[in-house]
């Protein structure tokens, strides 16, 4: 029973870890080695994955540990904001890395900005995911209604003179994540600016390649945070969509009521899982970029017959 | 293109002015091409921002640079003999040719045949 529950709570994270590790193993040979801030990168991204998984398990602790209802309510409610908080912390750690400054031959006359070493596809992916998060948050918030405490957490379906209701990712749950999106964006910009700011080294192509690698890591961490957050929203909406009730209509027999978007339940579940796995995979990939590339001399020695 | 300062070359602002002026008049910097910000160039050259600002101001006074709010400092349209597209294409060609070990004469032969 316990193992089954753990699997239900952690399968997305485990799938993301496997996916991230596979992607890194496939691309490892083509990627230049990350030299600056290896330990910080591994700790920031890897630690975020571990904490995320731990908090998922924590959400089920009421089954085993007695605590006030408010405590577990707060823990459960934090699941929406947690990926953004962990992503923010990881971005600050990545931006704080100060690589060793190689000798510079002078100043290049090309302007360097936060976008100089970031590929367009990363920027596009970040913007697209952000738009999806905002659209879903706005839609769910608009559909939410106040509960008995006056907090916008309810989704109701009117049935004659009565209503049928369930929880939804309403304004109460989305207020903090919406606020956190701003420092997440600011931290992403800051970390990318820190990478671009120092003068280029004398070995310009090598320095440029290193900066592209570090900028890609920053983008992966930010995108991972957005995808994980998107995953929690989609999963929550999937749960909301499953609201249904059967009522007696007297002489007319029984009838069922469900949400207008009940047909999307399966798709929302799948998309939520995909987003969560992808977000986790991006963080795992980032952590693994800190693993040193295999040395050439070792591979040559192994090729020589004894 | 690399800008480098030497201790024997006179005042840093004068050196920056002369080097950028030379790059513009020889077509290595094209019309409308954007230059780094005062802050970035000062940090790269390890000089005070005021030194770079002085050089930029004197280049603007000479009609070689134009500064607009929001679009930074750019080479004046009237100053450079070539557009930024031609200048960038020439730089790419020079880099590619050097990487393949070609001489200037080889590159000129290729250019003449493509003209």
Automatic annotation (TrEMBL), chain A:
- Give the superkingdom in one word: Bacteria
Question: What name does this protein carry?
Answer: Uncharacterized protein
Keywords, comma-separated and alphabetical: Membrane, Transmembrane, Transmembrane helix
Task: Cite the source lineage.
Answer: Bacteria, Bacillati, Actinomycetota, Actinomycetes, Micrococcales
Segments crossing the lipid bilayer: 6-27, 39-65, 77-97, 118-140, 174-192, 218-238, 270-291
The species is Brachybacterium paraconglomeratum
Automatic annotation (TrEMBL), chain B:
Does the keyword field hold Heme?
no
Q: Which UniProt keywords apply?
A: DNA-binding, Transcription, Transcription regulation
Q: Taking every annotated instance into account, which residue ranges of this chain make up the domain HTH gntR-type?
A: 10-78
Q: Which InterPro entries match?
A: Tscrpt_reg_HTH_GntR, WH-like_DNA-bd_sf, WH_DNA-bd_sf
Alphabetically, the GO molecular function entries are: DNA binding; DNA-binding transcription factor activity
Q: Which PANTHER family match?
A: HTH-TYPE TRANSCRIPTIONAL REPRESSOR YTRA
What name does the UniProt record give this protein? GntR family transcriptional regulator
